[in-house]
Amino acid sequence: MSSIKQNIEQVMAEIAAACEKCGRLENSVQLLAVSKTKPIAAIDEAIAAGQLAFGENYVQEGVDKVQHFADHPQAMQLSWHFIGPIQSNKTRPIAEHFDWVHSVDRLKIARRLSEQRPAQLPPLNILLQVNTSGEASKSGISFDELESLADAIAGLPNLVLRGLMSIPQKAEDYDSQLTAFRALAGAQQKLQAKHPQLDTLSMGMSGDMEAAIAAGSTIVRIGTAIFGARDYA
Ligand SMILES: *Cc1c(COP(=O)(O)O)cnc(C)c1O
């Protein structure tokens, strides 16, 4: 069995290879280690291997981990990204503990996050989750709604709109993956006319990282390939 350290090295090598292939700098893509359902010990191991950015999907579990690692010697370098669905009655702990939220898809949630962000903390980094494949079952806003939501969120005081995120429909072939990711990158480019500070595209997971990086991803979200399969029992 390979260790978390070896897994991180493997994923970093894959990121480097994907960057090389499309002529991008290796350090232009950040690895977000998705640690949902995984124990503190696994995150400790990842930090020891040099991993500093972690993604969590469940509010209580994520907050417990952020609080635990507040005492870690490297606490100041760690960043915590909330990437799961958000219920409006759960925004406060997210606003109080996380550095980034990737899954904002409505104004009500953004307003609450801004109101509830503690004044002593820097603004919360926000990505808008876009439903790029138009599946009714998935969260995320449509391309049509994107501009008005971005405009409204840009005016909220305690948030900083950084970019877009998507979880596209699973596609096995590279070309359809690339098409979906290019659509998100194109939407970001359009928004940049009015919102030039947008600099982040959270797209790409284990099975589609290479296409995501070719289309301009700046954050890839990887769980299983680092920490092993999740046990939801
Ligand atoms: C769980 C999750 C991931 C990581 O998925 P793996 O298949 O374990 O790599 C990435 N992004 C989001 C939004 C997730 O919920």
From TrEMBL:
The keyword Metal-binding does not apply. PROSITE patterns: UPF0001. It comes from the Bacteria. CDD domains: PLPDE_III_Yggs_like. Residues 27-230 form the Alanine racemase N-terminal domain. PANTHER family: PROLINE SYNTHETASE CO-TRANSCRIBED BACTERIAL HOMOLOG PROTEIN, PYRIDOXAL PHOSPHATE HOMEOSTASIS PROTEIN. This is Pyridoxal phosphate homeostasis protein. The lineage of its organism: Bacteria, Pseudomonadati, Pseudomonadota, Gammaproteobacteria, Vibrionales.
